[in-house]
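Exercise 7.
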Amino acid sequence: MPDYTTVPKVLDLYPRVGSMSTVTSSNIAFYIDQAENEINGHLINNYTLPFSATPPIIESISTEYSLIKILERFFTQGVGSENKWVDERRKIVFQYLDKLNNGEIGLFNSSKELIAYKSGDAIYSNTKGYDPTFTMLDETLQEIDSDRIDDELDAVEDEVYNPYW
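Solution. The predicted structure, written as tokens, is:
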């Protein structure tokens, strides 16, 4: 069952879809579900889903992407042709989803309140890929990860010499 858009919104976006006898409301609802599943897959790592209320841009993207899926299935594949407009719209949808997903574009609700972006569940650390130096064990057993030492030495050797800093 669709969460972000509806069959009438897809039909409003491109009324010609509704005039085709081969496209039913249940077909449209099926493609809405397919589109929304992909949208959720893109956003789930960085946003808490389900949204308490559908953000306006997610409704727009869902409506657009549902229409793209319908056009691909019934218009492009049905007549065995390529549709550049459909391909371009698909690229735009995924570029926008990528920007939302990486935090480049903010996501907001209908009240224009920002929806929290979770860029991971932990505090960022520049040493998170290395074994910890300090432990609860005896201090004589504490040592710096050899990979960290090598990486830091490589970084120093790769620096361009500048006598002013």
